[in-house]
Amino acid sequence: MTYGITGNITKPQIWEPVAELTTWLLERGLGVCLHRDLASGLMERGLIDASVCASQATDELAAHSDLLLSFGGDGSLLRTAHASDDATTPILGVNMGRLGFLTKVEVQELYGAIESIEAGAYELEDRMTLDVSVDGIVLKDLGLASWALNDVVVDKSGTTSMIAVEAFVDDAPLNTYWADGLIVSTPTGSTAYALSVGGPILAPGTECISVSPIAPHTLTARPIVLPCDSELRLHVSTRGHPVAFAVDGVSTLLDAEDTTVRIRRSDHVVRLVTFPDRDYFSTIRDKLKWGQSGVF
What we know:
Layout: E1 2-7, H1 15-27, E2 31-35, H2 36-44, H3 50-56, E3 57-58, E4 67-72, H4 74-84, E5 91-95, E6 105-106, H5 110-118, E7 123-134, E8 147-148, E9 151-156, E10 163-169, E11 172-179, E12 181-185, H6 193-196, E13 208-214, E14 224-227, E15 232-237, E16 243-247, E17 250-254, E18 258-274, H7 280-288
Parallel strand pairs: 1-2, 1-4, 2-3, 4-5, 5-6
Antiparallel strand pairs: 7-8, 7-18, 9-12, 9-16, 10-11, 10-15, 12-13, 13-14, 15-18, 16-17
Helix pairs in contact: 2-3
């Protein structure tokens, strides 16, 4: 198996573990590809021989790898997934962040995880994504993806004024949210921004979409869970100021006074590597400290 290695190169702690792993893989005759920026950093620091870095470096990691190793946090894994775009190359997240709901192993567990992979003792989990479009705007031109693994967010920007988000589900009126914004999330993204505003935790495989208001003006505006085959249309109105719009944490400002966003399930899936002894609920219990005495 060929392992493609990428990660968050702004984290100083990434370099030595990646260098050690690369050497370990090559010594065992396993295939290695390095994202070109990562390879350059390793070479500049003298951690790996320049000839090795040059021969293993590539800008198209997913195309040359059987499995991707993403070093960092959940944000790094999201960037890895989007860099792979339409490829379904499996991704294993190696946690170097804080919570890390998507990153399945810690650095010290990685070698054992790779041995399990080589022995076939792993599973692949397909995560649904959301197709997103904005009327009259090409998202790619703004540096945004057209699909989201975690969430799509509309938010107020540069003002204390609320925005109005009129929501329709399959053309049926749902609600007009007077709020700071709205988060539309997949089950994968339910433990991200949506969780912080009181949204529900959705287990992978439930295949649904959650809609969670950010600081709503009315207490009756609550998160709602929709069937995954629903199409959600959001008509966003402001008081003459731009609205912030984000897809998987990458944001821009939309200058239109009236903006229409359309969100539905995408055909694209992101394939994550999991292990039989690391089920979703053990991750939740560990990350959220559920069931631990002294934790309130």
